[in-house]
User: Fold these one by one.
Assistant:
Number 1:
Amino acid sequence: MLKRLLSITVVAWLVVLSGCAQADSFPDFTKLVEKVQPSVVSVKVEVKRWGRVVGRGGGSGFIVDEGGYILTNHHVIDGAETPVVKLYNGREFDAKIVGSDANTDVALLKIDSGDLDLNALDLGTTKDLKVGQWVLAFGAPFNLEQTVTAGIVSAKGRGEVGSQYVPFIQTDVAINRGNSGGPLINLDGEVVGINSMIFNPMISSGLSFAIPIDLADNVRQQLLKDGKVNRGFLGVTFGPIDQDKADAFGLDDVGGALVTRVLPDMAADKAGIKVGDVVIKVDGKPVRKSQDLPFYIGQMPAGEEVELTIVRNGDTDTIEVTLSDANGQFASNSDTGKQELGIAVTALTPDLKEATGIDKGVIIRDVDKDSPAARAGLRQGDIVQKLHRTVITSLEDFQAAVSSLPDKGKVAVLIVRQGVGSDFLVIELE
């Protein structure tokens, strides 16, 4: 009998201890959720192509400033003219797109909420984020608004899964379509990332990725100031280093970025970078993986001087490089259309012709906000092949076409957009 009582007692204590362990392993998230949810929004969009509605979609976002500024993903609002933001209390507002950056998949919206009090989330940092710690994702998967899921940080600095400019945070948090743009939150209630994508959109695989908030906030500040991101450009192509290459190039460690091509007349070329150089540091920061190189460079503005540590023929050296503009790969450009249309264009170089498969026209490298071109729907990267009555085959043709434009009225422009095709847009001159 005594033995039986002892067994029961032991089992009871094991249950209690198990409960305690479980409680320690799985925090109570209720207060954290109550704090964060009022700052999470849903974003609804009508996607237009060539002036026609071709689809409806949406995602999530979160308030970063009491003045009505909201962060979300670029791909959530891409192609939309006026996104609609739905707040936690159910009220909806038309949003202005302050700016958007496709390279980092970050967009900044603004709503005029009047006297309505908005709760902005605190922005944290990924510097102290550790693999294994708890994080929560907020958003509207499949339009199921104010959904919360939890998981852990699986890895940091995943540059190989998406944009070369983003060292993604990998988590096992369950996210789906509609979570895009929502916040990734630590247990202090701070935003540490923007939920951006999953590894396989067809199945739940426990692999989800978020944009580090440090990077997103840098983009936010630039969009707020200029409406676009001023991103430095090195002008090289590169590849990873494995053990065989490390041995062949005289490296002490398996790491760095191996330069495989140097674009002529760009920043690297002017500084003396050569094919076969291995970049191992950028301003003293180690390039552990080849993806680190564009990430470091992409955070610096054009015109900034950067120190590259390289290994060449087994010897280590440092080279000072003044960064080009991210669009600096285009050798020649024209601002002829800036004043009249609100666009700046560049010539189609041989590299661009090969990349696009198009051999005639000029490519738009910049579009001013609220300009006639912007209102007509022209974008950076569009190729202009006809303006008004002039066929465009070169910069000279474009300059001639602009000089012949009427002072007022509507003019047609034929453009080619990658992945979409060609069509005429109408620019109204004022």
Number 2:
Amino acid sequence: MDRTVLHSDLNNFYATVERKLYPELAGKPIAVCGDKEARHGIVLAKSEEAKKFGVKTGDVIWEAQRKCPGLVIRPARFREYVRWSRAVRDIYARYTDLIEPFGIDECWLDVTHSKIFGDGERIAERIRGEVREELGLTVSVGVSFNKVFAKLASDLKKPDAVTVVGREDVRGKIWPLPVSDLLFVGKATAKKLSSVGISRIGRLAGAEPSFLKKFLGKWGETLSAYARGEDNSPVRHMNESADLKSIGNSLTYREDIYNYEDVKRLLYVLSESVAARLNDSGLGKADTVHLWVRDKELENYSFQKKVRPTALCGEIAEAAYALFRTQYKTRRAVRGLGVTVSGFDKGVRQMTLDDLSGEYEKKERAEKAVDEIRKKYGYSKIQRGIMFEDRSALSMDVRGERLVRPGGVDGEVASQDDGEPDMEPFEGD
């Protein structure tokens, strides 16, 4: 028997919440943005009115304002968004306890055994109506027999709509769509697939799995199965938390970055966020540091290295910087950076010579003291010396903002160019 899976996507969520908090914004084009005084001042979300002017997620603020002269810029308030998101999930819980979040504004719901409320489409309509009437928010809901197609269905008609995709609809509704519409197919993967004539989901579904495996690795087989509707992944219980495998943060910047010192400084900003969240998590220390780089051509690169188990910002940042200096070979200007740690010891590990000497403990105490000062008096009250070389870096509280890189990052390793760089070398060579 087929499952009945819903994917619920709150429309223009951040902007709509801002209107609920400030009714005088009704009817005005709104963009919720990062700090406009810092490099990461980009559009995180926009209202329907702003969309009509061509404002897009990831636009830098000046670009968005050029497209829409009357654009109202609102700062992101994630605590409020979380509060409203929880209120919406309380409505979902009236119909099922199988609720799996996919970001703050999206959820999957398995309502296979909720037939007392009607079929999937009926339940979706009830949810849509209750969210609108009780909270003043709108939601687009996709109904299908698996998570991947339910997600795709919710994207087909927005805002405030319900779209059903049954097995009989796959060939007519799904397969003609661009392959980039399929979940987990980002820009880099879509570009690769297009290079071999696979631009539609139907072409992906019909491609030989062995070829896709050779072309894209094991992930190629997975995407092929998704295109054919072969997704059996369950919707997790609302109280089930996924085992945390990594902690990371990333930022996309307004200007191209050419200077090694700027890269190092920004890696320290990100590593402070990662280290603070790692220490808060109770997962112990991490033994692997991952670096993500997006270049000026919007190509993405990933590198990693083993380190001695650590939760120290300085050690994480220096490992990430070493990866950048040794592994980033294209030498193109940089537009985005990300730092992630994994391989947690959960507090159980062998002692090292550094432990016995007390050096690690001293560094740990110093970083914890800094974090406590920031919690009490604000992030900017105490900074590393490297930050003062760029005043904009002083305002980047990435731990508090938890910004995500906008749009379509696959997280995959792009092909490396070992030839001559297509730009001037980074300063400091």
